[in-house]
Amino acid sequence: MKPFLLLSSRPEDEAADEEHASFLRCTALPAARLHRIRLEAGPLPALDLDDYAGVFLGGGPFNSSDAEKSAVQVRVERDVGRLLDEIVDRDLPFFGACYGIGTLGTHQGGVVDPTYAEPVSAVQVTLTPQGREDPLLAGVPDRFSAFVGHKEACRVLPPTALLLASSATCPVQMFKVKRNVYATQFHPELDVAAIVARVRIYQHAGYFAPSEVEAVVQRLTPAVVTAPGRLLANFVARYG
């Protein structure tokens, strides 16, 4: 059986390892079937995408709409863009979470900017009629809670995309391109323990004032977030 590929851009070892563990938990893949490449660590090596059942792109500190970008961010965006050229052209299985919607949305001609940024929180996501019919959302309720926390979002849906889910505070929570290329604004890999760990890691990253970290944790802890991980399980079941 082919492995899946997880592309990460988190420079903090703890955050990168936590993200990898969260994807393993939700997909139920053995570690040997989820290869990881940390994009921030160096140029993307030559890849034969036929070696993989599908590609995941995790979140990270970069924003596609940043006015000023470091050399590392520029390189990562260039590498991801070249990969998306092939993925979209061939309609290969792809799932981008959070940063994935910014990169795919920009790649496909959408508008990504800070208009619909959301604080770190659990929000109610609602499926569109097309979302209710999509195989990746099989078994997912029409409305469900999901964890978010982002400084930018897709304000204008790409002309190539089909909207699958929305929320009151962020109209584009999930879309697909062609048949097999997906992206979400929310983090399907996160449960309460994982988002609390991430909040502590990123308390100085500008998502909230560092003095508010315990209050943020207290707001997140009672959340019941169980449905989003089903998307990752469905992705593996469909393409693996």
From TrEMBL:
Short name of any one Pfam family annotated for the protein: GATase
* Keyword annotations from UniProtKB, A to Z: Glutamine amidotransferase
Which superkingdom? Answer: Bacteria
InterPro entries, sorted: ChyE-like, Class_I_gatase-like, GATASE
Q: Which SUPFAM superfamilies match?
A: Class I glutamine amidotransferase-like
Coiled-coil residue windows: none
Q: Report the residue ranges that make up the Glutamine amidotransferase domain in this protein.
A: 49-190
Instruction: List the protein's name.
Output: Glutamine amidotransferase
